[in-house]
Structure formats: C-alpha cells, structure tokens
What we know:
The protein has no helices and three strands. By secondary structure, the chain is mainly β. It has a three-stranded mixed sheet, with no helix packed on it. The chain is rod-shaped and about 60 Å long. The N and C termini lie far apart (about 35 Å).
Amino acid sequence: MCHRQLRFYKSTQCGHLTFTGDTYIDCNSPNCRISSAHPATCGGPGTVCRCRRYYTQPERIVTHEAS
Length: 67
C-alpha cells in the first residue's frame, strides 16, 4: 500500500524527535487510487471507483541524533 516515510532527528539529551521531511512511497498497485499504477478508467462510465483511497500508517525513520 502507498505510504509516507517521515524523517526525524533525535535529541540525545531529551529524546525529542524533530520532523525534517517526508517522502511518498508508491505501492504500484492498480487497486490503490493513490498509486501511479491506478488506471484512469477505473470504475467505468457512470460508476464510482471503489479502490483504496488512503495511506497506510507512515514509516518513521530517525536519520541522525544531535545534542
């Protein structure tokens, strides 16, 4: 499933995480509305596309520690 990677740096003194950025990860699934592999013609004329339309839980990554 499509998700986001959230990047943080961690304070060595208090353990606080500070957000530094995020990256979109594409699952490449045709059944995921957010994916670039989802067909534009999904649902057909007069019907609604019922494919997944949400991100899964983000992946949290600590890139480095700072004091």
